[in-house]
Amino acid sequence: MLEVSELTKSYHKVRGVKDLSFQVESGTAFGFLGPNGAGKTTTIRLLMGFMKPDLGSARIWGLDCWQDRAELKRIISYLPGELHFMEQFTGQEFLDLIKGMHGAHETIRKNQIDLLRILELDPSQGIRKMSKGMKQKLGIIAALMLDSPVLILDEPTSGLDPLMRKTFIELILEEKKRGKTIFMSSHHFSEIERTCERVGIIRDGELLAIQDIALLKQKERQTFDIEVGGEEDAEFLRQSDLTLYPLDHHKFTIQVEGEQELLWKTLAQIQVKRFQQGSLELEEAFMHYYHSSLRGDGT
């Protein structure tokens, strides 16, 4: 388990993070969402033992992230948000160095070969000549090939094209099947939605809300674009209790949250010429939850 309790860190009177508390159960994935500068990287550096907190604590598998930081490196694979390589190396030389630092086990070698194939990276090329996307792939391979039980990933898809982002998500889902505990920061809600059981949002160094993805999906709102047969049908819709957004004279967008019984009962009483179903992004459901929690209305 990963446990953070009242974690606080400031930089020369400038707040880094303040009073963070959350837990990540073993074998689950936690998404850490927020804009640039929100405190995501500071939190990860505290988890990695790169900095001593001013107040509070963070523990992984019962080990204190600051006091036991050397021992923690044996169970954590880390992908930093800003990658810095020894540019004179080839990709293969860098991977061999990482492999040697972790015992050069056969499992690591096999994982490396598989990941190079999956991510379509030629490791013989010099790092200096690699694009940002290629360097990101190299960092992902270096982290995942170690088969560590805990993964801490800071903006892992930065620089990847959409196809490779999809491939990365598939890799993370495979890691989850193998029981890994994953803490992943991102500003892309879609990859958090697909890979994590829980998500927290941080802004200006403070944790605003934490919610289960499954519960968010229950709050997910759906939209329906509809064109009705005439003015009488349009007026019937306007008089209903549905949430309507007029598009044209006889065209509307209907928004439904939760049960859809009222929608279908209403549509059964009118002539429908065109009907198309869509769905709002889960990110909107999350922000709806967040704003509701601020208002205290529980909706």
Automatic annotation (TrEMBL):
Annotated ABC transporter domain residues: 2-229
PROSITE patterns (UniProt xref): ABC_TRANSPORTER_1, ABC_TRANSPORTER_2
Domain of life where this protein originates: Bacteria
Keywords: ATP-binding, Nucleotide-binding, Transport
GO molecular function: ATP binding; ATP hydrolysis activity
Family: Belongs to the ABC transporter superfamily.
Database matches in PANTHER family: ABC TRANSPORTER ATP-BINDING PROTEIN, ABC TRANSPORTER ATP-BINDING PROTEIN NATA
Protein name: ABC transporter ATP-binding protein
Organism expressing this protein natively: Desulfitobacterium dehalogenans
